Amino acid sequence: MFAWISANIGTIIICAGLVLIVAAIIFKLVRDKRKGKSSCGCNCAHCAMSGTCHGNIKKDK
For a Cys staple, 44 with which of 18, 28, 33, 50, CB 3.0–4.6 Å? Predict the structure, then answer.
């Protein structure tokens, strides 16, 4: 078992790093969604889905 780990330590470290990066991205997306931020470009003037996408956010005019 230890021989396999020592032979593949580089692959294990890279995979662990990729998992951490993906987890951080997902965490940020979830946190932004809870705060009401959008991941789109927010150019709603030209978007056909503007009423559906940002319908629950109060717009100040």
Answer: 50
SS3 8: coil
The set of residues, in sequence order, having a beta carbon less than 8 Å from that of 54 and lying 6+ positions away, is 38, 42, 44
Domains of the chain: which residue ranges?
A: 2-53
Q: What pLDDT does 32 receive?
A: 86
Cα-trace Rg, the chain: 20
Residue with tokens 């927010």: 42
The residue type found at 56 is N
Q: Using an 8 Å Cβ cutoff, are 19 and 40 in contact?
A: no
Q: Does the pTM exceed 0.70? A: no
What are the Cα distances from residue 40, in Å, to 12, 17, 22, 25? Answer: 34, 27, 19, 15
